[in-house]
Amino acid sequence: MNYYLAPMEGITGRIFRNAYHRCFPDFDKYFTPFITPTDNGKLSPKDYNDIGPEFNEGLYVVPQILTNQADGFLRTAKAIQALGYKEVNFNLGCPSGTVVAKRRGSGFLAYPMELDEFLYEIFAKTDLKVSIKTRVGKADPAEFEEILGIYNRYPLEELIIHPRVREDYYKGSVRMEAFEEGIAMSKSPVCYNGDIFTVSQEKILEEKFPQLNRVMIGRGVCANPGLVSALKTGNPVTLEQFMSFHDCLYKGYQDFFLAMSGQRVVLFKMKEIWCYMASMFADCKKQEKKIKKAQSLADYEAAVAAMVRECQFQPDHGFLPPR
Length: 323
Ligand SMILES: Cc1cc2nc3c(=O)[nH]c(=O)nc-3n(C[C@H](O)[C@H](O)[C@H](O)COP(=O)(O)O)c2cc1C
Known about the structure:
The protein is an alpha/beta fold and 323 residues long. Helices cover 46% and strands 12% of the residues. It has 14 helices and 8 strands. Strand 5, helix 6 and strand 6 (159-161) form a beta-alpha-beta unit. Helix 11 runs antiparallel to helix 12 (263-277) and helix 13 packs antiparallel against helix 14. It binds flavin mononucleotide. Flavin mononucleotide (FMN) is lined by residues 6-9, 11, 33-34, 64, 91, 93-94, 133, 162, 170, 193-196, 217-220. The site of flavin mononucleotide has 22 residues, from strand 2 and helix 9.
């Protein structure tokens, strides 16, 4: 099985990727959070800071583009290619209101004719490998058949399917029937993405789809950074491994943000990752709240130490989505 890190805006940027890879070098590909084309076709300093090759040494990184304009896609793809990249990913999944209102991300799925024209143009004019990350429709999985028919006209590097429609956001169960349709119909290799939070969930997926050889994981790895390692070796993550990843990430954010922006950004980033990581500790509401309330790095470190000291670490647990 090949494992890919899901793109997660604000979370799985270069600091996360590098910290992760140092502790658990087991992802085959790291997809970046989306890049939106600029008017001049150049990468913004923020995007360069994320995908610059000197910041991603030793990692197989796939930059992701979000747009509905073929010329913008092509100019951005060219700037990415100039950095040495051979592959890009196209975002047809983002459910955010502002993105969808501009007919981008999963909003583009509601305009099949325009989507077809867009894909025709980009595949005609780039020699980069292009993969697609898609939802199974904008409002209804019945849309997926037509969308798959369009994808099948183009030589996608791979088709990553998150089997939810836009209106689902990340809530409710994944729509496995639509994924089944995708894996049966797609002419391109298919990758599964969605709600793989534990080893047993992934093993069930493998049993159901023996032909599947690629899985993308996001929130499951944010909660349990040892998940892919456990899938590969059968050994659950230890508290020591979990904390060494935490420490690496914390140091990475401090090195990057402390001098430039102060403690506030470092705290914000670490509090965000604890929305996922707290799922690995039993009965930790009080300790989690303390982390969220920390106003300084000293407060934060004391709150994390209390979490580790007072709450039982549950290596077999996975991300618990909010209800
Ligand atoms: C906070 C957050 C940010 C995300 N950012 C992106 C993004 O930039 N590009 C993208 O294609 N998907 C993005 N996603 C979706 C994830 O890549 C993934 O499809 C989703 O989390 C489901 O997979 P999971 O259940 O393994 O987390 C984001 C999801 C979350 C929760």
